[in-house]
Amino acid sequence: MHVAGIDAHATYVVVAIVSNDGTLTQKPVRIRNRDIRKLRSVLEPFEPLEVVVEASPAWPWLYDLLDGPACRFVLAHPKRLRAIAESNYKNDAIDATLLARMRVVDLIPEVYCKPIEQREQATLVRHRARLARLRTQAASRIHAELHAVGLSLPRGQLLTRDGRRWVHTEAWPLFGPEQQQPNMLPGGCEVRAEQPSDLAAYPGRFKPLLGGAGRHTLSYMKTSALTIRLDPELEKQLDHLAERTGQSRSEIVREALRRQLAVSQFQELRKRMMPFAEAAGYLTDEDVFRDVS
Questions:
Q1: Which of 92, 176, 261, 271 ranks highest by number of CB atoms within 10 Å?
Q2: Which helix (H) or strand (E) holds 218?
Q3: Which letter does DSSP use for residue 68 in this model?
Q4: Counted domains in the chain
Q5: 148-152, 181-185, 187-191: which has the highest mean pLDDT?
Q6: Residues 98 and 156 in one domain
Q7: CATH number (domain holding residue 25)
Q8: Both 84 and 15 in a single domain?
């Protein structure tokens, strides 16, 4: 059985197909997303086959399109694919080919593919959990500001109408100028509006999960902070990715930094090990696959 490795991105996919002995039978080809006719024309000559895709925001539409009797869809766990995440020669063609060959030698850690109904409900539950965490962070920060001026409010009462009214009438006059500025709160806090407008179309039975309409949430980090400067183009790309993935800008930057540090550590280790590998006759990735496949 042939195996197809698909490296999926926001606007395109790269497909490479190998035989059951790891031989490349279809060179990597780049296909625009939703170009279903071209994608099927590449895969159909090799059916039945397995399709391997790394879990990412781009996998669901591929699963809905391809999974069936002639095409078994395999979803790979991204954090365990260290051979791809830390490869020194990383590009789309290599990633797609490596996915397929790792499947041939049974090195792909599989992830359960949720059907569309489960994905929709899981997305809703995750969004609700995120809003609940933001609400808890906001409440904790407000309690800290109340304690700073010698006031206190029972836990849970702050989130009621009476509690919010008490904060505005009793505590507000005691706050300093910085505490009263919504964008100049101490401790590195940030106030922003959360409006789950994309969930407004869900049925009425989901409304309790949403916790109401749009709200102002306040978040902060109790760890060290790092300030970085972004040029306009990079900031635009970061905002676009945050909107598309549902992650905050800080989460994306932290994950990118973790990956870059891991890549740097791997490259340093690889540089130290290369002389030993070359002495043993391993000069390219093909040499490794020749012995393990």
A1: 92
A2: strand 215-219
A3: B
A4: 3
A5: 148-152
A6: no
A7: 3.30.420.40
A8: yes
